[in-house]
Amino acid sequence: MADGKGRMAYGSDDTPESERSERAISHQANDESLGNGIMVPIHYHLMLSAVLFTIGALGVLLRRNTIVIFMSVELMLNAVNLSFVALARQWGSMDGQLIVFFVMAVAAAEAAVGLAIILMVFRNRETVNADELNLMRW
Amino acid sequence: MILPEVNWAAVMPSVILTVVGITVLCWELWMKEQDRKYLAWLSLAGVAGAALFSYTLWGRNESAFNGMLALDAYALFFNLIICLATGMTVLMSRHYVENNELPAGEYYALLLFAAVGMMLMAAATDLIVIFLGLETMSMAVYVLTGIRRQNVKANEAALKYFLLGAFASGFFLYGVALVYGVTGSVKLGEVATYISTHFSDGAGSPMLLAGMVLLIVGFGFKVAAAPFHAWAPDVYEGAPTTITAFMAVGVKAAAFASFVRVFLLSFGALHGQWEAILWALAVLTMIVGNLTALVQDNIKRMLAYSSIAHAGYLLVAMVAGGELGGAALMYYLVAYGLMNLGAFAIVVAVGKKGEPNEEFNDYAGLGFRYPGLAMMMTIFMLSLTGIPPLVGFTGKFYVFSAAVKAGYIWLAVIGVLNSVVSAYYYIRVVVTMYMQEGEKQVEPLSTRPALATAIVAATVGTIMVGVLPAKPMALARHSFASLQKPAQTASSTPKKDQAATSTPTATAPSKTPHH
Fold first, then answer.
1. Burial bucket for residue A108 (CB in 10 Å: 0-12, 13-18, 19+)
2. B162 vs A contacts (CB less than 8 Å)
3. pLDDT band at A33 (very low <50, low <70, confident <90, very high)
4. Of B250, B282, B439, which Cα lies nearest the Cα of B361?
5. What average pLDDT does chain B have?
6. Which of B177, B271, B399, B453 reaches 20 to 30 Å from B281, CA-CA?
7. What is the DSSP letter of B62?
8. Closest partner residue to A73 among B132, B167, B174, by Cβ?
9. Which residue in the set A66, A95, A109 is minimally distant from B163, CB to CB?
């Protein structure tokens, strides 16, 4: 934790822009100089995250079972989490990692509410198929 | 170790609402069946307390929680709009909850928690806090939408709202991630600084622009702008009418509050990039909303499409931007809130237990049998159309004149044409009430004093704010101006905080000592 202090300072508003990007670069360089194997470049993570996000979005649009749709939404959120973690590493700041905790908490709350709603629909309609939920149109 | 700056005053209105909400929830467990009505009064007292506290904070321009929240006139103005929407909804709900046998404790508590989320959104100057506020608000509203558990329409509405809402949150969050990736921060002030130094030509980078577009999708969904509006009519129709009113006004106001804060503050330098997108969204939203509203037979659904159309007018104000556009947007939200809450309150009044009376035909002949009710409905409909001297006219006047002054003449022309189209379906309600025969009986308002108070208050507001627009407009201008004062993000450490509030020029010295 050699740069622990630097990270703390980043949390406050007034870190100058130039200093911050320099730190991000030196942080990366530092890792490579430590010689702990090959660094996976940042854009690999971002591409994986984008692909997962797209799979999730397509799942929401194409699947008809509301539980599967909901799972696809969760996949989207977790794809974004991957981006946040990778970008936090890139910037050498803790912000991105902290955000992931918040997103996970939100996703958990969302699951509680969402599954309750799906259950409620199933009790009254005995279906969770999105195509059959068409009482209201236009 | 330096402790982060906290500044509790910025969250006090939300804290009041949270505490009252938890009290409502717990108190309901012990209370007798016939005492449930006190829950409504307690909630109303909480909302009034939050509004009063916001009022006493007026004039302060500070940041809080290490720059995550702002305590400025802009946030306080929206706090007042949110308190208005919540308070009116509580008044409307007092007998509605009882007649429809809704669970009172959960109902009022969720209403207050949703208001807390809205206030967070309005005050947030950090994309993640905006996301948290958005989710706090949305999750409470998802549950409220489906609170009539035995009603299949309500079930369906809640499910659709939840799935599409969560889908849109995913887009919003991805937008935040991309912006964070480019700028290295999620704080609006830092994002703005980064963009204005690195992209001073206003072109941006592909990743930043993608993030911006995803944020537009997320916000566009919450404000029900076309083409992200598909959920709105179904949800508005299936939700309890009181909640529909709350959603149409509160959710929209809160979403616009942070939409404007993010785009005018953080992405101000990229104005050239997003104005075309929002221009198209505004036009599409107005046209889709108004044309689809023409063919509706259900009043709630008609009002849902009308609220989509109004989101279009609000987007026009946002595209116009600048001090005029911003102030016009805030004034229009007040105007829209007053007349829309009033219209929904009438729909609540006409409905009965087991007999929602939401079709146009159910309004036939109301004008003869209930002249007072029909007259107030007429006032709301005329105001929504934009007939002078009512508040809807003044609001549209400010919005379209801001658009013309900013050079968006075509946008204003399309907006005015759309208002003309909208006259058809609003006046249709009036025509049905006064020129058709019908036998529908309405429970007299004298048995529901809280609802009557809400309707009368909305009527008085619709007329007074429209006739005397100068003071609310001055307030809106003052509030919008506070958005652009540098004090907001400059006060970075507690020591400099006092200096920053008195002298907005503290921005420059606060940066130098670190070098």
1. exposed
2. 113-114, 117
3. very low
4. B439
5. 90
6. B177
7. E
8. B167
9. A66
Residue-range domain boundaries for chain A: 2-132
Strand partners, B359: B298
Contacts of B156 in chain A (CB under 8 A): 121, 133, 135-136
Which among A87, A113, A136 has the least Cβ separation from residue B156?
Answer: A136
- In order, the DSSP letters of B231-262 are HHHHHHHHS-HHHHHHIIIIIHHHHHHHHHII
Size of interface A-B (CB pairs under 8 A): 145
Residue whose C-alpha is closest to residue B109's, from B232, B26, B197: B26
Written as six digits, the tokens of B59 are 């004039």
| Contact between residue B50 and residue B84 where contact means Cβ atoms under 8 Å apart | no
Question: What tokens appear for B244 in the block?
Answer: 């529909």
What's the average model confidence in pLDDT over B366-385?
A: 94
Predicted confidence band of residue B472 (pLDDT cuts 50, 70, 90): very high
Report pLDDT digits (tens) over B408-436.
Answer: 999 999 999 999 999 999 999 999 999 98
CA distance B183 to chain A (A): 9
What is the CATH code for A2-132? 1.10.287.3510
**By C-alpha distance, which of B37, B41, B95 is closest to B452?**
B95
Per-domain residue ranges of chain B: 8-501
CA neighbor of B286 nearest in space, from B431, B160, B386: B386
What is the distance in angstroms between the Cα of A97 and the nearest Cα belonging to chain B? Answer: 11
Instruction: Give B-chain residues touching A103 at CB under 8 angstroms.
Output: 131, 173
Cβ contact, residue pair A117, B197, below 8 Å:
no
pLDDT at position B512 is 35
- Cβ distance B515 to A16 less than 8 Å, yes or no, reads yes
Instruction: Flag if B155 and A117 touch (Cβ within 8 Å).
Output: yes
Tell me which DSSP letter residue A38 carries. P
Query: What is the CB-side half-sphere exposure of residue B148 using CA atoms within 13 A?
Result: 23
From chain B, the residues in CB contact with A96 under 8 A are 180
Residue with tokens 């997320």: B218
Residue B475: phi, psi to the nearest 5? -60, -45
- Contact: B173, A80; criterion CB under 8 Å: yes
Q: What are phi and psi for residue A6, nearest 5 degrees?
A: -60, -40
Q: What is the dihedral of CA B355, B358, B362, B367, to 10 degrees?
A: 120
Contact flag B146-A66 (C-beta cutoff 8 Å): no
Beta bridge mates, B69: B64, B124
CB burial of residue B39 (10 Å; 0-12, 13-18, 19+) = buried
Which chain A residues are closer than 8 Å to B190 by Cβ?
Answer: 13
Residue B503 is predicted with a pLDDT of: 37
Number of alpha carbons in the 13 Å side-chain half-sphere of residue B114: 31
**d(C-alpha B217, C-alpha B221), whole Å:** 6
Which of B150, B158, B173 lies at the smallest CB-CB distance from A117?
Answer: B158
Residues B60-107: pLDDT tens digits?
Answer: 888 888 889 999 999 999 999 999 999 999 999 999 999 899 999 999
Chain A nearest-CA distance from B258, in A, is 19
pLDDT of residue B510: 37
Probe site for chain B from A5, A70, A113 (most B CB atoms < 10 A): A113
Q: Is the pLDDT of residue A31 over 80?
A: no
